[in-house]
Amino acid sequence: QVQLVESGGGSVQAEGSLRLSCAASGRTFNTYTMGWFRQAPGKDRDFVAAIRRSGDTYYGDSVKGRFTISRNNAVNMMYLQMNSLKPEDTAVYYCAARPDYSMSTSYLTYNYWGQGTQVTVSS
Description:
Blueprint: E1 4-7, E2 10-13, E3 18-24, E4 32-39, E5 45-51, E6 57-59, E7 67-72, E8 77-82, E9 91-99, E10 112-113, E11 117-122
Parallel strand pairs: 2-11
Antiparallel strand pairs: 1-3, 3-8, 4-5, 4-9, 5-6, 7-8, 9-10, 9-11
């Protein structure tokens, strides 16, 4: 089992940058695929990015080229560097984990979740 805690959210103007962090507990962090999802008010929870234990990365179409996901297995941390932010990136961002059997962009397949961190981008 793993517990997840996000940090780094906040308010920024369009074209600005933020870096989100996800701290994971437990000794099996490197056996999980880690992901970032986001949810805006009244909308579904959308896939943002994921990184497998191998380091392979995957991105949602709307963030490709602007966001970068990374992980440090030595310290049980995952990160999301967000550049060129747009107002439509405004949402609560969630860190999630699933066993590293295969890649998935569906939030339904992720077993563990953080509490979320708000990101607000103003125009």
